[in-house]
Queue: 2 jobs
Job 1
Amino acid sequence: MSFRTTPSVDYVEDVSPGTGALAPRAWYATSDAQSLSLNGSWRFRLSATADAEDDSFAEEGYDAGDWAEVTVPGHWVLQGDGAFGSPIYTNHLYPFPVDPPHVPTENPTGDHVRVFDLPADWPADGGAVLRFDGVESCARVWLNGTELGEFKGSRLPHEFAVAELLKPAGNVLAVRVHQWSAGSYLEDQDQWWLPGIFRDVTLLHRPTGSVGDFFVHASYDHTTGEGTLRVDSDVDGRVSVPALDIDVATGEPVTVAVEPWSAETPKLYDGELVTAGERVPLRIGFRTVVLEDGLVKVNGRAILFKGVNRHEWHPEKGRALDLETMREDVLLMKRHNLNAVRTSHYPPQPAFLDLCDEYGLWVIDECDLETHGFTEQAWRDNPVDDDRWTPALLDRAARMVERDKNHPSIVFWSLGNEAGTGRGLTAMAEWIHGRDPERLVHYEGDWDCRDTDVYSRMYADHQEVERIGQNLDGGTLKRRELPFIQCEYGHAMGNGPGGIADYQQLFERYERLQGGFIWEWIDHGVTHPELGYAYGGDFGEELHDGNFVCDGLIFPDRTPSPGLVEYKKVIEPVRIDGDGADGTVRVTNAYDFGDLSHLRFEFSYQVDGFPTGAHTLAVPPLAPGESAEVKLPASAPDGDGAEVQWTVRALLAEDTPWAGEGHEVAWAQRTVASRAPLPAATGAGPTADGDRITLGPATFDARSGALRSIGGVDVTGLRLDVWRATTDNDEGASWQDDTRWGVLWRQLGLHRMRHRIEGVESDGDALVVRTRVAPAAREVGLRTVYRWTSDGTRVRLTVSVTPEGDWKVPLPRLGVRFGLPAEGTDSAAWYGSGGEAYPDTRAAARHLQWDASIEELQTPYVRPQENGARADVRWVELGGLRIDGAPEFWFSARRWTNEQLDAARHLTDLTPGDTVWVNLDHGQHGIGSQSCGPGPLPQYFLKAEPAEFSFVFSVAE
Ligand code: IPT
């Protein structure tokens, strides 16, 4: 007897886009036609393979009553407490053998069943459409036992005509979802693999004569101030815009005076498209996007993108976001001066684009396409260069463009991300250019700009960006005529990104550079019972990319990271220049469209970091690009030896939809008078008594010279420290061929420095401790002398460091660290920068007097690493001590050592001990962006060179 079995699920590995779905059309949230949300609890059965179960579950009468339940929209791997499998994170590697279009036999398959009744008032006539807004990665659908079809294209809508199959009650909707399909080869984005019905499922009534597809064309002529509206519609009807007195037939253009739409002035007109059977609300924004004089211009002006890449993410729900979470993202972006978002790397939930229209953000809408894993085989067999896949690519392009084409916020269509090059991409670009000539096409992988309207790159370093700005980068003739954007830069993984202020200076200096998009918006940490937030590998994945998935400007819970605060400052739309010495400052409007009339300017002096009362700075309502000398409203107070600074703040004069009156948009701070030099603190000499030396308020161990106490406060382990728990940007990415300092530091042994004591001696009225600090097995070292003096009440430490040997690397940090008893050390007060800052992340460092608990001094990077330094600290008080620095220093304090911080993988690995460890640093190495980009610029290196710095310790009052 012979037999043969083959799995009967050919459609899963079929490269074609699917069967049975309706042609794509414009998406809209509401109309006067009825709809029924099918979101909610669905019956769910998980199988290990695509063909484990037959399709009898789709039949009427099947009893799924004993199945589990999942919430739709949702991903099954994030539900069921692990009973339904786990998420997998890979950056670009396919988590299955690359054998297109085949996928593994082990193909988690979720059968979903939902039984529903039609509402009593559901009209009997007309049609009905079942809409899926997003299912990962391949779905087969049945209604009441009849198969509707199957589809791929996870983050794209699919609709099916279902009127004939509907019953008043007891409708059975069955959806079989396969985690892996041929479509997975096109969806190799850097994110968690998360199967499921993760966007809305809706039943739409389609009345007779209802709206089909429609295309709102709303352009703006900046020379006349007029807008032209034409709504093309498959079904004839009328278009009205009451505020503009417009009432025209579909297809008929009408030109009237309008206020234009821009990201800064997002003027939308409410209108309506009315056909015989349906009224669809429209929100119309008039704007014209062109490529002119080698620049992207909107409404006649070149724009500067201050953008971010946004993946959809929620730490519990994955990519199933609700409207409020999306709104939170948009509000956070607006409040941090961002004006643009790239929907990396797929069309977002449709409602997100409504929010971009409403609040004002330029959008690069990106297609659901990435084939990055083929880079491992030098792009051989890349689907975008294989005609068999082209229908699927064109289907994806069409589903994006048709769905989203009525959003004024979208200025670019992006073909996808990291898919190499090929004929399929060219076909997509041609189709998009033909269908929507009123927008531009973006794709980063096309360095020759064959298919695109902008030269786009990712992670180009400052030098290269400058060359591009100067038009010295060469390239094809077409490329040389195009503007440039960095579609990804400033990799925000862990502590950082560093160097973004330096990029922004280039973007503002060279016309051709039209800005960029930080990578990325949010850390994709997954809420985890033991680990806090999980990242790659925490679910036992056999292949993963660790915490590379946590590289956002906001933490998983959407708290802004210092990186976002820095970015807000770097891209602020008002510039305040000059030190005010001549009684004026120069204020420049850096908006592209708006004047400054929505802002009021507040001016104040600070004496030793204490504000002395606010004045109004009278700034004229400058037009975009204009600047003016503005008179300071008050003269500086006499500091009497204290430091005097002024601060100008540009605040919203009135409430806006995205922030309230008084919200700070921009600011500047300058020093007018410096603080007096620190006292020498001399006079009282050291005295030795047995194993103890006393110097003013301080006691020391006579043998080692180690500080024991100051004014009765116990101090342990005070010594030179050069190590920092390496940041993701210190470590760099494994593929980086540039120098990765974090790796070299560890190779050299800077995390295991030894301290040899050469002598403890008195020198006049000073106690001098001579040491040499060096790692085992190396000849390099740091000759370090601690010189202590006192005036009887204060004790001053001067540290002199002289490098010896051939230092080929900069230092991570240079300063002293010591421990204070945890009991009594709960918080710190200081005068210096308020938030975290490092040499190349200090644009937002504002100098005032601050206080914070030790907990608040930590920045909770998902993977623990160096964090929390405060810059330019003049003095700090903690644990009963006051420490003044000469010069200013970097301060950090934690309830664990830097070594413990370095070893931790998750925040939950860090537990407070009985000591608070304090670092007072003379220097810190820059942060850079090397976790996926260039390292720190040379001017931010902490070179191993002779250094001397002092601290004066006293008992806090
Ligand atoms: C780049 C990707 O486009 C993006 O999705 C993300 O993976 C980012 O890197 C790093 O977080 S690709 C990289 C090889 C430059």
Job 2
Amino acid sequence: MQPKPPHFIAIYPGSFDPITNGHLDLVERGSRMFDKLIVSVLRNDSKKPLFSVEERTEMLREVLHVYPNVEVSSFEGLLVDHATAYTATVLLRGIRAISDYEYELQMALMNRRLSPEIETVFMMAHETYSFISSRLVKEVFSLGGNITGLVPPSVELRLHARLAKTKTMKGQS
Ligand code: PNS
């Protein structure tokens, strides 16, 4: 019997509050590298996210449904346990600048200690997007700056809707 070809399932974890074009670029490239890519949102309210996990997974699905081998999921607890549940052997992370490296290295080494059979794979962010972060997008947007081209159009619409809702609520209080 012929040996089965390797089947690589990768998890791309993150907060995705919200997804940016930098994340999207990584998903697109990751989807070409792995047989299956699971984009997983961490459930962690202590980070005081702008969007709920449900909203974030919905936004991810809206944008990522065009990739047939990409799935959207969420998790709480240890990332390696989540990866094991999906029989994933790869954790995918993006690196934008040297400043990302220390944090990413710590996480990768901790995850390797917890689960040596799961490998972290880093991809360099595309230079067009290497300055984008969800945090900066939210800051610029909340201060009235233009974020077109930094996030997918559907996410920009969500941000406008969220801002309008916040203004209405403030007006009522
Ligand atoms: O987009 P982020 O906020 O940089 O993503 C961070 C994330 C979700 C990858 C990280 O916080 C995580 O994996 N949390 C799960 C908890 C865990 O497994 N901790 C131990 C290994 S570092």
